[in-house]
Structures are given as C-alpha cells and as structure tokens.
Amino acid sequence: MNTLSNQTSKWLAAFAAMLVTIVISGCATSNNMPAPVTAPLAAHDYLIGPGDSVNIVVWRNPEVSSLITVRPDGKITTPLVEDVVAIGKTSTELARDIEKALEKFIQQPVVTVIVTGFIGPYQEQIRVIGQAARPQALPYREGMSLMDVLISVGGITEFASGNKANIIRTVDGKQQKLSVRLNDLIKDGDISANVQVRPGDILVIPQSFF
C-alpha cells in the first residue's frame, strides 16, 4: 500500500510540475507576441469643404432655414448671417457658430446642420494621377481602401505599370512614398495588395515602357 501511495505521490508531483511549465511557457509567449501589422485607424470626422451642400435647419424658425452650397472661399451666407466660415469644420461645429451669430436676432436659437453633398476640404481629397481610366480627385470616406479608389476611377489603362505605382503621403509635414501593387490587386485578385488610404493621399500610376 505504501509503495502504491508513493507512486501516486510521485505521479501527482510530476503532473503538477508539467502544469507549471506549461503556464510559464504560455505567459512567456503572450508577452512576446508580434505587434500588429497595422495600427487601428482613429475615427475620422467629416470636415466640410468648398462645393459641399449644407442644409441649415433653425428650430421653429423656417424663415431663416436654408439649403446652401459652400462657396469656393469656404464661407456660407444664410438669412441673418453673413460670411460664416464653413470649410474645415464638422457639421456640429458649424451649427454652434451659426447659433452664436443668430443670438443677436433669435432668443436661444437651436440649429442643426446636415451635409447633403460631399466633396470635403481639398487637403483631404484623394488624388489619382497618371494612367488611371479617369484621373480625378475623390472625397475621402471613412475606411476607404485602395480598391475603393480604383473602382471610383474606373481602374487603370492598358498602358499602366500598375505594380510600379506609388502613394505619396504627407506625415508630420514630410512626404513618404509607399509602393503599391495595382496589377496584383486588379488582375490577380490578390487582396493582400489592398491597403487603406489616408486623407490627402496621392496615387501616382506610371506608364509602362516596353
């Protein structure tokens, strides 16, 4: 009986030691996991730009409510309010500015601004130049990817050197050149070639030289 008890004790001790080893190994592994390839994107609030349509609703005052297009100089003029800067502001920020201006004429005005046309500030537009089917500037949208950009411009031309394309991106006032693989994405369906774009990116698609 004592022999059996000793064997059981030894087996339990060995099992406990094995568990400790597994736990320690697991902790060591979790502390040394590789960093994520891409950091999550910060939330991006839409900023009003020239050419955007904004619907200004003043509660209980329909006579001063209006649908207006932001002028090229980035300002708007509404009934009772002249030359309010709209460019570079969110709809909420613009609503508060209009409320402040209307306080001279209306007691405790409540304003809601609804953006109904989206162009955005020039500095946030995605520009596509070179051998795109329809080179153009596109308004940036939350979560926009390289594939979304290519769909919007109709893809690339037969003369494009897609795998030699670059994204020019400004970070902290400095320009960076990022290589992208358009041929792999469009022709081969390689989703790993699809990358997220950022406000203000410039996609340059060079011509292929035979």
Query: Helix count, per DSSP?
Result: 4
CATH-assigned homologous superfamily of the domain at 125-205: Outer membrane lipoprotein wza domain like
Instruction: Report the average pLDDT across residues.
Output: 85
CATH architecture of the domain at 125-205: Roll
Q: β content, as a range?
A: 15-25%
Low-confidence stretches: 19-39
Binned, the helix content reads 25-40%
Spatial gap, N to C terminus: 88 Å
* Number of DSSP E strands: 10
Q: Which fold does the CATH topology of the domain at 125-205 refer to?
A: Outer membrane lipoprotein wza fold like
The biggest sheet, with number of strands, parallel, antiparallel or mixed sense and barrel status, is: 5 strands, mixed
Basic shape = elongated
Query: SSE string, helix = H, strand = E?
Result: HEEEEHEEEHEEHE
Query: Rg to the nearest angstrom?
Result: 29 Å
Provide the CATH top-level class of the domain at 125-205: Alpha Beta
* Strand order, sheet with most strands: 7-6-10-8-9
Structural class: alpha+beta
Subcellular location: Cell outer membrane
Family: Belongs to the BexD/CtrA/VexA family.
Protein name: Sugar ABC transporter substrate-binding protein
GO molecular function: polysaccharide transmembrane transporter activity; porin activity
Helices and strands in order, then pairings?
Layout: H1 2-31, E1 53-58, E2 66-69, E3 75-78, E4 81-85, H2 91-102, E5 111-117, E6 126-130, E7 136-138, H3 146-152, E8 165-171, E9 174-180, H4 182-186, E10 202-205
Parallel strand pairs: 6-10
Antiparallel strand pairs: 1-2, 1-5, 3-4, 6-7, 8-9, 8-10
